[in-house]
Design brief:
- The structure is a single chain.
- With about 350 residues, this protein is of the alpha+beta class.
- The chain has eleven helices and eleven strands.
- α1 runs antiparallel to α2 (about 45-60), α1 runs parallel beside α6 and α8 crosses α9 (about 245-260).
- The chain is elongated and about 85 Å long.
Length: about 350
């Protein structure tokens, strides 16, 4: 009589063999579902959510996290954290080589730690922050084209016991899918950002300003809310370019842009309008409140010392114009024009001031 795995010659079915067969079928189904899902979406958050839901379902960790490399800071940030103490962990960051996930990302090698108390690479940083006790970890890097994008880390199995080599193999396979999907999503996001942001200052560009401002005007009209616009032009900026060169002028504009961003709300929109001109769009804001913000930006620019890193130490001023919908204008073009006219009155007289439309 022919036998199969999990069954003896009498036809008795081995429960362990049956469980193993079911697990293999679940793995294959999960791989197929993830493959289909990842190729159907280029939204990064959606991609990450799909991956981690499937991994959790298949490998059943008590805690799990997905960390992504922050290219600007050079460290790992917790993009997704699920499990006990997750809220206390999500703001932590790991340096390359720090902890198991840091080591995995730096070395680009998967790692299974059956007992963290016996592995010097384990860091108690997350446990101390979340009051959680890690026993075992399986962690794999997210690598594509030789570049590490981050890591997936699973902590403690729901069932008794630690992770095993089969878990590491499954997670490594899933990570390969994930890395490609993340790379595609990041690439699409960057392409989108290039179409709406200014290359130099990273503020929104004038093309995006016009489309967004038209939307904001219509929204303000519909809900009968005020909408204000600040128009800023730097004083004597041409002299900076003439004296120190265009590269220094470009760095100066970047510093001014960062200063503006630090003084406005998240709902406000800062744009580089052209050259050394900037516009700030302020939804649900009346003219007098917009003037207060403009005055804060004006004073901050006047008080700041720019290009310290180049040992140039430039001092600047700016001329500001403020206009509001519906008080001064009824459409986006008129709103920009009214703010521009107000700015120009200051520019051609005293400079370093704020003028209302």
């Amino acid at each position: 009589m022919k036998t199969v795995k999990g069954q003896d010659s009498s036809g008795y079915c081995d429960p362990a063999g049956t469980r193993e067969l079911k697990q293999k079928r679940l793995q294959i189904t999960t791989f197929n579902e993830i493959g289909k899902a990842l190729t159907s979406s280029l939204d990064l958050k959606e991609v990450l959510g799909i991956v981690m839901d499937k991994i959790s379902e298949l490998l059943q960790p008590k805690n799990w996290s997905l960390l992504l490399l922050d290219e600007e800071r050079g460290d790992l940030k917790f993009e997704i954290v699920v499990g006990p103490g997750a809220e206390k962990i999500k703001d932590l960051r790991l340096k390359p080589g720090e902890g198991v996930a840091g080591w995995v990302a730096k070395e680009k090698q998967p790692l299974l730690v059956a007992d963290v108390s016996k592995d010097s690479r384990f860091s108690k940083k997350a446990d101390e922050a979340s009051n959680f006790k890690t026993q075992s970890i399986v962690c794999v890097p997210l690598v594509t084209r030789g570049k590490c994008l981050g890591a997936i880390e699973l902590i403690n199995k729901v069932e008794e016991g630690s992770f095993v080599e089969d878990d590491l193999l499954v997670l490594t396979t899933l990570a390969d899918y994930t890395a490609i999907a993340i790379e595609n999503a990041i690439f699409l996001k960057r392409v989108h950002e290039l179409t709406i942001t200014d290359d130099l200052t990273k503020l929104y560009n004038s093309r995006f300003l016009h489309s967004r401002l038209e939307y904001e005007v219509e929204r303000a009209r519909r809900f009968k809310n005020p909408l204000s616009l600040i128009f800023l032009d730097l004083d004597f900026f041409k002299e900076v370019n003439d004296s120190f060169g265009h590269l220094c002028g470009s760095r100066l504009l970047k510093e001014v842009a960062q200063l503006i961003i630090g003084l406005i709300r998240n709902v406000d929109m800062a744009c580089r309008y052209g050259g050394d001109e900037f516009i700030v769009v302020m939804p649900e804001t009346g003219k007098e409140n917009a003037v207060i913000v403009a005055e804060k930006i004006r004073a901050a620019i006047k008080d700041a010392t720019f290009l310290k890193g180049d040992s140039i130490n430039i001092r600047l001023t700016g001329s500001f114009g403020v206009a509001s919908f519906p008080e001064d204008a009824f459409d986006k073009d008129s709103l920009i024009q009214m703010a521009d006219n107000a700015m120009y009155r200051i520019k051609t007289t005293t400079k370093d001031g704020v003028e209302k439309a």
